[in-house]
Amino acid sequence: MNVWTWAVDGWIIAIGALGALACAIPGTFLVVRRTSMLADAISHAVLPGIAVAFLLTGTRDPFFMFLGAATAGLIVTLASSSLARFARIDSGAALGIVFTTMFALGLILIVQVADRVDLDPSCVLYGAVELAPLDSTLIAAIEVPRAVLVLGGVTLLNALVALLFWKELKLMAFDPALAKTLGCRPQLMESIILGMAAATCVAAFESVGSILVVAMMIIPAAAARLFSDRLCGVIVGAMIIGIIAAVLGHWIATSLAPALVAGGRDASSAGSIAATLGALLVLCIIIAPRRGIVVRLAHRWLLTLRCAREDALGLLWRLDEDDRSVDVATLRALLVGGAEIAPLLARVALWSLVRDGRIDRGDGRATLTERGRAEGASLVRSHRLWEIYLMQRLALAKDHVHPTAMVLEHITDAALRERLAKAGGASAASSQPLADPHGRSVPPKTDG
Question: With a threshold of 0.85, does the pTM exceed it?
Answer without folding.
Answer: no
